[in-house]
Design goal:
This protein is an all-alpha fold. It has three helices and no strands. The radius of gyration is 14 Å and the shape is flat.
């Protein structure tokens, strides 16, 4: 896959996160997208893109795992 192709894939995955119904799912999809963006950064040799997206991916994944035991709100969705 080309760098451009990977960038477009990362964009598509990130955009798809906005259709997630649960916040935990949204953050997990965004974590995957950030990993793809970090790989894109590696391909184009852009250290700021790599570091920023590794940090975003870590935050998204850790926060989604932390919510695993959360109790549902009165509306039915975990916050």
């Amino acid at each position: 896959m080309t760098a451009d192709g990977l960038g477009w894939l990362a964009t598509a995955v990130f955009i798809s996160s906005y259709f997630a119904k649960r916040s935990r799912t949204l953050r997990r999809i965004q974590g995957v997208a950030a990993c793809l963006w970090a790989a894109y950064g590696l391909l184009i040799h852009a250290l700021p893109v790599i570091v920023a997206n590794i940090l975003v991916a870590a935050a998204a994944i850790v926060s989604s795992l932390r919510d695993k035991g959360a109790t549902p709100s009165p509306g039915g969705a975990a916050e």
